[in-house]
Amino acid sequence: MSKTPSAPRVLRRSRVREGLPYPLGATWDGLGVNFALFSANATKVELCLFDPEGRRELERIELPEYTDEVWHGYLPDARPGTVYGYRVHGPYEPRAGHRFNPNKLLLDPYAKHLMGPLRWSDAHFGYRVGSNRADLSFDRRDSAPGMPKCVVVDPAFTWGQDRHPGTPWERTVLYETHVRGYTMLHPAVPPRDRGTFAGLAAPEVVEYIRTLGVTAVELLPIHAFVDDRYLLEKGLRNYWGYNTLGFFAPDPRYLASGGTAEFKEMVARYHDAGIEVILDVVYNHTAEGNEMGPTLSFKGIDNASYYRLAPDTRYYINDTGTGNTLNLSHPRVLQMVTDSLRYWVTEMHVDGFRFDLATILGREPHGFDQGGGFLDSCRQDPVLSRVKLIAEPWDCGPGGYQVGGFPPGWAEWNDRYRDTVRAYWKGDEGKLPELATRMTASADLFARRGRRPWASVNFVTAHDGFTLADLVSYNDKHNEANGEDNRDGHAHNLSWNHGAEGPTDDPEIRELRLRQIRNLLATLIFSQGTPMLLAGDEFARSQGGNNNAYCQDNEISWIDWEAIDDDGRALTAFVRRLLALRRSHPLLRRGRFLVGAYNAELDVKDVTWLTPSGEEKTTEQWQDPMARCLGMLMDGRAQATGIKKRASDATLLLIVNAHHDVVPFTLPAVAGGSRWLRLVDTEGPDRVELSASRTGDEVPVPGRTLLLFELMPDRRPENGVKSAARAARDGTETVTTDATAGQPAGVPVT
Fold it and tell me: How far apart are the C-alpha atoms of 224 and 242, rounded to whole Å?
């Protein structure tokens, strides 16, 4: 059934022409505005024009043409700043997948700018809330008074000399942060700019991020999104923003100026500092929920096309856990997503994307497919194939866990790295074999089809879960502030409070926690692959044990810059030094997987795994569940191999010790050097090594400590000392695996 709403009293009558079915959206051409809206199942589309404040509906214009399932019209008198929305007519037949209701004002899926908040009421629902017939009922109330409105934009912007930094993947260090939370309490940001793109672009903020040593900021969702009604009723907000309403429009709450040019100005500031801007994007679902959700845009434009529906078509497939799933198998929905991505690259100059629940994007009706339409579209697209594409490679649907399953060109969040590193430093047994695999870029998952180590995005913490400080301060989550009786959030955190739950004045516990933070940070930054830091971890920011702060738009989630103490400042300096070492030592960010293969020409292995005695680990030793100390010898001479030969890099020795006691470690003999210089010691991070230990010396490795050494080159010719790799070849029993199988040699398959 379809019910026609009463039209407003006509306050003006605009001229309208047939226009064009492309491009979709509202497009200003310098003379007028073309409006084009896809709907395969609508019977009529009305363009609704509003006053500049978006309060009064001035006119409804029936789009005069319908071409290739696109409704379109051209208004020669319209200009940038025109405020509009749509009413779409068609059958209201939920059992057939159709939920048209022209009483509901709908947002243009291609809108570049939105104005006004969503003021919740029952009028936002296509059915009568509370009806015994549930979503099969029909609501006739006008939703326009409480709806945001679309605004026509003029895309003109003077970019000047702006260029994409184009940071190679091997040099990339990601820094995940939130536009609002990062600047709400920043003393150098003017109050009017806090929590906005203008605040994030403040010179002091940009300079801090630049000097930290990261190469890219990864912003939590900035697309226009909705605060859930149930959260607002509890006095909470959808802080993270994973509830998208518009894929082309920045959320108005992040615009201090009210104009989209503010976002472009922010990007230009970061590019000028050599920093890339990555957007966390949510193309797997929308804010409209399931059959009991509101009608705000897609559901009322063409529900049967935009969403994946169950076989009976009344209900939605919910592979996202949020009520609905976008149907990227439909060509027009796929077009909308790829158009959105290209828009953010070409018009807004962003440098890449992190895709929330990205398995959804590769899911076809038969399941996840590396050759699915969206993944193929990205691979062949001349714009998208050249920017950074990062997958969160899981969803809650069948076969949804796909870590390592994305095609070439993609990087992926590696949760197996996160869990392994957490468990190892917590002291869990039997973690050394998998730790070695994860620290060498998880070749078992990614070393196929020509993919490189950078495909593994390594992280220990992210927005979802504990901060690093909370990871070492709480055994259990403390999400009481979320109003769900602490039932929400993950319970399996692999965390350890080190003797007291939460804040403590015990100096020994505090020092041990700081050392563990340093261990986790150093492991992350020195591992092969692409490291991702959570903003604030570099100075031990806490969320009070809340590991699911998605709804906390307050001091729980905001970074309190003035609360950073001496320990926090020292930790920040430590992170700067770690990142400087990563930049200066190419061996820490190799473009090829470390495989432990012996190179007879150079008499060297690229990586050798050592026991505390300084000898290569045997098969039996790998199987020892009580072993918690490991040496990772990376021979810089191996860097000279390959088609493009290069000078040798420094040889490095990384030692990790998760035992609670001191472990004596014999420094190995390596050809070309006789002394080891200590670069990093997480027990004494400020200690400067004025002298180097000789090869063969036994050095004490303190409990729960990471050490990094660099081999100092001899000033005399080779003295005949056999390399560690040659010594291993001469008699040490090892297990050797096929490099293409993705397991470093010497590490048993886990």
Answer: 10
Distance CA 16, CA 22 (A): 16
**Hey, CA dihedral for 198, 201, 202, 205, is it positive or negative?**
positive
pLDDT digits (tens, 9 = 90+) for 522-555: 999 999 999 999 999 999 999 999 999 999 999 9
Distance, CA of 405 to CA of 403 (rounded, Å): 5
**DSSP one-letter code for 88:** E
Cβ burial of 156 (10 Å; 0-12, 13-18, 19+) is exposed
The pLDDT > 70 percentage for the chain reads 92
In 589-626, which positions are buried (b, 16+ CB within 10 angstroms) versus exposed (e)?
bbebbbbbbbeeebebbbbbbbbbebbbbbeebbeeee
Residue 555: phi and psi, rounded to 5, are -65, -20
- Decide the pairing of beta strands 367-368 and 530-534: unpaired
pLDDT given at position 724: 33
Q: What single string gives the DSSP state of each residue in 289-348?
A: -STTS--SSHHHHHHHHHB-B-TTSSSB--SSSSS--B-TTSHHHHHHHHHHHHHHHHTT
- Say whether pTM exceeds 0.90: yes
Question: Of 142, 218, 392, 606, which one is the catalytic site residue?
Answer: 392
CATH for 591-741, options being 2.60.40.1180, 1.10.10.60, 1.10.8.60, 3.30.420.40: 2.60.40.1180
Per residue in 134-164, pLDDT (tens digit) is 999 999 999 999 999 999 999 999 999 999 9
Distance CA 711, CA 677 (A): 6
Rounded mean pLDDT, 549-577: 97
Q: How far apart are CA 501 and CA 476, in angstroms?
A: 8
Cβ–Cβ < 8 Å for 482, 237: no
Q: What is d(CA 532, CA 392) in angstroms, rounded to the nearest whole number? A: 13
CB 384 within 8 A of CB 338: yes
Among the options 59, 291, 356, 553, which is catalytic? 356
CATH topology of domain 1-350+369-387: TIM Barrel (3.20.20)
Give the position of tokens 């339409």: 373
Helix H or strand E segment including 177: strand 174-177
Choice among 456-460, 516-520, 550-554, 736-740 with the minimum mean pLDDT: 736-740
The H-assigned helical ranges of 665-716 are none
Sign of CA dihedral 151, 154, 160, 165: positive
pLDDT score recorded for residue 366: 87
Buried b / exposed e across 85-110, counting CB within 10 Å, b at 16+? Answer: bbbbbbebbbeebbbbbbbbbbbbbb
Query: For 493-504, what is each residue's pLDDT tens digit?
Result: 999 999 999 999
Is residue 170 part of the annotated active site? The answer reads: no
Locate the domains of the chain by residue range.
1-350+369-387, 591-741
Is residue 46 part of the annotated active site? The answer reads no
Query: β-strand 25-28 against 33-38: which pairing, if any?
Result: antiparallel
Cα–Cα separations (whole angstroms), residue 569 to 332, 526, 565, 576, 580: 51, 21, 6, 11, 17
Report the amino acid identity of residue 143.
S
Please name the residues in contact with 716: beta carbons below 8 A apart, sequence gap of 6 or more. none
